[in-house]
Design brief:
Largest sheet: 6 strands, parallel
Radius of gyration: 18 Å
Number of helices: 11
Bound molecules: adenosine monophosphate
Helix content: 25-40%
Low-confidence stretches: none
Strand content: 15-25%
CATH topology of the largest domain: Rossmann fold
Amino acid sequence: MNIVTQIKAWQTIRKQFNTHSLGFIPTMGCLHEGHLSLVDRAKRENDRVVVSIFVNPTQFNQEQDFLSYPNTLEQDTQLLIERHVDYLFLPQASELYSDHYSIKISEETLSAELEGAHRPGHFTGMLTVVLKLLNLIQAHRAYFGEKDYQQLLLVKKMVEALFIPTDIMACDTCRAKNGLALSSRNTRLSPEQQQHAAHLFRLLNSELDINTLQAQLLELGFKIDYVEEKWQRRLAAVWLDGVRLIDNTKIR
Ligand code: AMP
């Protein structure tokens, strides 16, 4: 696996394989089987695969969350080598944001609700970095998880609105045996807390109406940012012992 940290170096490499199809998976690292399921799919569908790891400061609405975001670069690199990834792109914030974030891309309707309403600025930071990465990588296909459903919808919308020539591929949410959606932030939960957190999926996936579901979550000690039905899905963001969890399921 070729590890690339400089934008210029990546651009030189990119020019060399015009005839191959390229799959891209943007991540913030602390990789788990959820990320790796995107990698495996990209490997099946493309000649070459590039993964980026960049903990994007502009999409964190709480500085502490950014500062304490887990960093497991050595282990991530090993996992990507084992999955036969061709390129690992590790851009520097100073290079990606040479404009000091004076240029941003924002969306004004979809990003005002749910996650956007609870995390001001989050989607502007996310869309801005995804646009920069899509422009740099120039992949044929980029892979995003349904775990972050609203993010997926916004990326698709941006790509369509700005005529970006990369296909956005939606991937199923990868879960632990108990149903808990895999997430880098789960490392902040003890095994017992992770077991408890699995109630979120169990309830979202149940036949309960939304009010009963909310009441049960509260009874189980979750704090609720939102639980809503939209886009034929049930989407929720909750807090368990100071850790924020998001998940969504298809409405049956
Ligand atoms: P992150 O590193 O959290 O920014 O995630 C990078 C990509 O992996 C995003 O497209 C996420 O939606 C996706 N992802 C994260 N967790 C999962 C999961 N449990 N299953 C499938 N995709 C995931």
